[in-house]
What we know:
The protein has 338 residues and is an alpha/beta fold. It folds into 2 domains: 4-139 and 306-336, Medium-chain alcohol dehydrogenases, catalytic domain (Quinone Oxidoreductase, Chain A, domain 1); 157-281, Rossmann fold (3-Layer(aba) Sandwich), CATH 3.40.50.720. It has 9 helices and 16 strands. It has helices at 45-51, 132-136, 139-149, 183-194, 208-213, 227-230, 270-275, 289-300, 317-326, and strands spanning 4-10, 20-25, 33-42, 69-70, 74-82, 94-98, 115-119, 123-125, 174-178, 198-203, 218-221, 234-239, 253-261, 279-281, 308-313, 332-336. Strand 9 (174-178), helix 4 and strand 10 form a beta-alpha-beta unit. Helix 3 packs across helix 4. One of its GO terms (molecular function) is oxidoreductase activity. It comes from Rhizobium leguminosarum bv. trifolii WSM2297.
Amino acid sequence: MTEMMKAVRLHEFGGPEVLRYEDAPRPVALNGEVLVRVRAAGINPPDLYLRDGYRALPPEWQPDPTFPLILGTDVSGVVASVGDGVSGFSVGDDVYAMVRFPEDLMRGSSAYAEYVSVPASELALKPVGIDHIQAAGTPMSLLTAWQFLIDLGHDAPNPFQSFHHAPVPLKDKTVLVNGAGGGVGHLAVQVAKWKGARVIAVASGKHEALLRGLGAAEFIDYTKAAAEAVAQDVDLVIDTVGGPNMERFLSVIKPGGALFLVNPLGFSGRDKAAERRITVSSTQVRSNGTQLAEAGRLLDSATIRIVIDSTYPLSKASAAHERALQGGIQGKLVFSVA
C-alpha cells in the first residue's frame, strides 16, 4: 500500500486560491537520492510563476505539465532514508537543498510537502548555527548570489546568452545592489561585503536600518531618489529586480565595469553597454550541494545571515502566496512543516 503525506498541490494553473493542501503519495529515495522529512520549505518567485502557468512567457515556453503537481524547490529537514549509491548522509542528519532546479522548473520540484526525495549531489548538511526555518529560506537566494558573485559552479549552457557567466573580482570595488531588501538582494549585499566590496544598497526606506546593519556603506531609498541620479563610478551593479528600464543602470557604471541581471528578460541596452565597455551578464541558478556546504560555513559563523519576513503553516499556502504577491518583503517567506 502506498504511504501518504500532506502536500500542497496544483490541479490547474491560476491564482493563490488554486493551491490545495491535501493527501499525496509519499516519495521514496531512488538510486542516488535521499528522502528528506521536510521541516520547512522556502517560497521563491519561480513558485509563483509556475502556479500561474508562466503566463508572462512566450506560448512556446509555457509548461504543459501533468497535474497534480507539487510546487517548491527550497527545503530544510531531516534525512528519513538513503537510497543506493549515496554516501555522506545518514538517517537523522539535518540537511538543506534546492531541489532539481532548473530541471523541474516547469513541473514543480515537490518541496511544498512533508517529504521530498532529493538527489544527493544537491544536498548539504544544514549549518548548525541556523534553524530549519532560516535554512529553508536560504538555498535559491544564496545560490543565486553565490553563482553570480563568487563561483558559477557548472558548465551547463546559459539560457540567456551565448557565453558562460563569469563573476568579477570584488575586493576594493564598489557594488550597487538593486532590490537589496529582498531574498537575493540582502544576501548579495552580505556576500559582496564579505569579499571586500563597498556596497550601495537600493531599496525602499523601511529596509535601511537592516541593510546598513548587514554591511551596506550607502543606502538609496528609491521611493525618494532614482539610483541612477545618486550613484556614480560603480564597478558592478547587480539588479535583482528586473522589469522595464534596466538600461538606466548603465549610466552609473564605470567604463570596463559590469551589469549583472538576475532577471534579464526585456533588457535592451546591449549596444549602449558595448559602447561603454560594460559587460552585461546573467545566468540561471542551478542546484549545487557543494556550494551550499561552502556557503553554509558563512551562515554557521554568522558572517552572513538570512532574514525571514514571515512564516506560514503549509496548510496556509494560499495566504503565503497572497503575501508574496503584495511585495515589499524583507528577506524571505517560509513554510513551517509540522
